[in-house]
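Morning run. Coffee first, then this:
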Amino acid sequence: MVGAISLGPGNILNLQLRAYRVDNGSLIKSLSGSILLTEQTSKQMSKPAIEVGYPKAGTESYSTPRCISCFKPGYTAAASTARTQGIVRLAAIVDTDGRLKKIEVMQGLPCGLSEMAIEAATNSIYAPATGPDGKPAAVQVNLEFEFKLDR
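And here it is:
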């Protein structure tokens, strides 16, 4: 199963879902639909995934952390069999020691690929951002991991 959720204009939540056979990766069924969100649900969805209090990397005189030891996530056997491809988007905090903490999946993939992205991100080491004072600072970052099968 592979799915996507997006927020469209006018508080419309768009849903897409595709089911594939595990043995050969062929499409079984594709479903899509839209739901009008209530004002309360819309407010809940707009809350930040990462707790407030950390500046965003690259804003307000904070630099962007640089990956100095980057790990690339691997494919799980289930994802290879299902021919799952796509992008995993993570939000996290890069601490003053260059390690990630408080990782949140913003857009995931099935078959263990979200977990593989989290593992790769967790094992990576970053040169921390610096704040306006020139000292290392913890900042919010967004990370993307693309999973693409060779043909």
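The mean pLDDT is 85. Good start to the day.
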